[in-house]
Design goal:
Shape: rod-shaped
Largest sheet: 8 strands, mixed
Number of strands: 24
Strand content: 15-25%
Radius of gyration: 45 Å
């Protein structure tokens, strides 16, 4: 079915609207998040040089054996134990020590002093803290800073933003608020401390951070989404990084070469500390937060930053793609568009894995959502357009065509040129002869009743012969054949219909006791054919499917030349009739008023038997004219 430009544009607009809203409500949701997990797992670990990177970070876990041996109250350890850890790690050649443990509240003065002095002696300790409040709001603050923060090398917040499904997949790399003392996460603070830099030297841009690097090395660029977040550089599940028990370290069971020149992160790994998270590599929620920081630090050392294509611009591009697909669905057809959508979906799937190897995450689920929504929008609107078109066609033609022709029109609505087209058609005009005198002799009610009976019978004949009644013109009518659906025998059917109309009139007059029972005696009919303009013509208040053009004008002029009971046809019609079907009487050529040249015409003659039917009074028609009022 051919649709208008407005209908195509409307499909594009609706599809774009639904795509944007769907992506907005599903952003960071389960579906898109699980797609990311799927790609992560199918593509392997994000940090591909895993063997080389393992030597960078070591985890010292405060695990169940450590808590069972040295806990003081609840899950707390004596801070002198942490001071002992610092001294022992320093003696083993640790490069840097990071504590993913909160020391924001004082304990005993002796223990706090021992921890402070140990951190001061080593001089290369980084501690954690937390931001409190909404990062995009104005009430953001930093809490949980260590009581010995004055002697530490750096600090970083340990928060992980959750997706809607409670998974941890991203990290907020930067807090742009100027009044915050801490602006970077724990892993980035460790990285900056390792290269003797600080957060003040970070260049913050809209979609990336420029991180200073070691001398002779290009600055590290960290991609950011519209929330200042980036995908975490996961390298695996629990135990991916070398992990040792704090109890084993204190007992001297760890060889010094496993610590020397390493960045050592100390954090809770015991289950009762509840410091583990659900991630793409730990669906059971058993990846400790300290190891997530360690894996991200490894990714920073390797210079890896996974860029995620997301945000408002991505949604806008998907909406545009969806709008184009929906417009194609309405313009070129649903099946062709479905094939295009399947091909685009497959290409998106392949592109996701290819781009992932280049450090770019293209979420094919968003792509599939946009394509699917757009196709279904196109399908629904196309169905709506078809129903509307069928309703329009039914309203236009129901009373003027045969049921068979109406079914064909509904099955092939594209053949109807509602907007206007040039086609070949056969046009018929018919008019009652002596109608003015009848109106003078009959009452208005009788005239209307007579016309209704007459028009019913002759219209039925036209419809039965595949014609379409265009309009009633006073006591006359206009009909046409060959449009909107062209056939090979339009002229023959038009002439047959004209003969049938005369026969119908004869039957009407034979139904009474005398011919006067039905006052209409003769009709004049003319038929001509040729090119016409066909379409839905009218105003916003009323429209009609009709024909225009020179062919229509000539047919009307010929009808005025037809005498009582005559059927006149043009030479154009005569040439297209079967040679032995009708008896034609040449009438020569005649001029047409308002038109140059002359038209050859013929009178249709045929032996028509008039059948006799039982006499009965016709409803609404008096047998004798009523006398005029004096």
């Amino acid at each position: 079915m051919r649709h208008s430009v407005f209908q195509v544009f409307l499909a594009a607009l609706v599809a774009g609207f639904f795509v944007v809203n769907t992506l907005w409500y599903t952003s960071d949701g389960t579906f898109s998040g699980r797609t990311l997990d799927y790609v992560w797992q199918k593509s392997g670990q994000f940090v591909t040089q895993q063997t080389a990177l393992e030597s960078q970070v070591v985890i010292i876990g405060v695990d169940d054996p450590t808590l069972n041996r040295w806990r003081t109250s609840g899950s707390r350890l004596d801070r002198r134990l942490y001071a002992n850890l610092i001294d022992r790690l320093a003696s083993m050649g640790a490069r840097l020590i990071g504590f993913d443990i909160t020391f924001d509240e004082p304990s005993s003065p002796e223990a706090d002093e021992a921890l402070l002095m140990a951190a001061k002696r080593f001089g290369k300790v980084v501690t954690n803290c937390y931001y409190q409040g909404e990062p995009s709001g104005t009430n953001l603050s930093i809490v949980g800073r260590a009581i010995f923060k004055a002697v530490v090398l750096s600090e970083g917040y340990a928060n992980f933003p959750y997706d809607l499904d409670k998974y941890v997949r991203r990290i907020r790399f930067y807090l742009p608020q100027d009044d915050l003392p801490i602006k970077v996460p724990f892993s980035l603070a460790l990285y900056l401390a390792c290269i003797d830099s600080s957060a003040d030297k970070i260049d913050s841009c809209t979609d990336f951070l420029r991180i200073p690097s070691m001398p002779g090395v290009s600055p590290l660029l960290l991609s950011l989404d519209h929330k200042y977040q980036s995908l975490i550089g996961f390298s695996g599940g629990p135990g991916t990084l070398p992990t040792f028990s704090a109890a084993d370290l204190i007992d001297g069971k760890i060889e010094p070469e496993k610590i020397q020149d390493k960045v050592v992160l100390v954090g809770g790994t015991a289950k009762e500390l509840h410091d583990s998270f659900i991630t793409p590599f730990s669906p059971r929620g058993d990846l400790p937060g300290v190891e997530i920081h360690g894996q991200q630090l490894n990714a920073l050392f390797a210079g890896f930053s996974l860029r995620e294509i997301s945000g408002p611009y991505w949604s806008a591009n998907l909406a545009l793609a969806g709008a184009i697909l929906a417009a194609l669905g309405v313009a070129i057809g649903l099946m062709m568009t479905l094939l295009i959508g399947i091909i685009l979906g497959a290409l998106g799937y392949i592109a996701t894995f290819f781009l992932f190897t280049k450090g770019v995450f293209f979420n094919f689920s968003d792509w599939w959502i946009a394509l699917t929504i757009s196709w279904f929008i196109a399908a629904m609107l196309d169905g709506f357009y078809q129903q509307w078109e069928k309703k329009t066609i039914t309203g236009l033609f129901r009373q003027y065509v045969s049921p068979h022709l109406l079914e064909e029109l509904l099955a092939h609505p594209e053949k109807i040129a509602l907007g206007g087209a040039r086609k070949e058609a056969v046009v018929m005009f018919a008019d009652i002869r002596g109608f003015t005198g009848l109106c003078e002799d009959l009452e208005p009610e009788q005239v209307i009743a007579m016309l209704n009976i007459y028009f019913h019978e002759v219209t039925k004949v036209i419809v039965e012969h595949g014609g379409i009644l265009d309009k009633y013109i006073g006591d006359g009518l206009m009909a046409f054949f060959g449009v909107p659906i062209a056939r090979t025998n339009e002229t023959e059917m038009a002439v047959q219909a004209a003969l049938g109309m005369q026969a119908a009139l004869a039957r009407l007059r034979a139904q009474g006791n005398t011919g006067a029972d039905f006052p209409i005696d003769r009709i004049g009919i003319a038929i001509h054919g040729g090119d016409v303009l066909v379409g839905n013509v009218g105003s916003q208040l009323h429209r009609q499917y009709t024909l225009l053009g020179d062919t229509v004008n000539i047919a009307a002029r010929l009808e005025s030349m037809a005498r009582e009971g005559e059927i006149l046809i043009s030479g154009w019609v005569a040439q297209k009739l079967p040679p032995t079907k009708f008896r034609l009487l040449p009438r020569g050529t005649v001029p047409i008023r308002g038109r140059k040249g002359e038209i050859e015409i013929f009178e249709v003659r045929n032996n028509i038997g008039v059948s006799t039917v039982p006499a009965r009074a016709l409803p609404g028609i008096a047998k004798t004219p009523s006398p005029k009022s004096p």
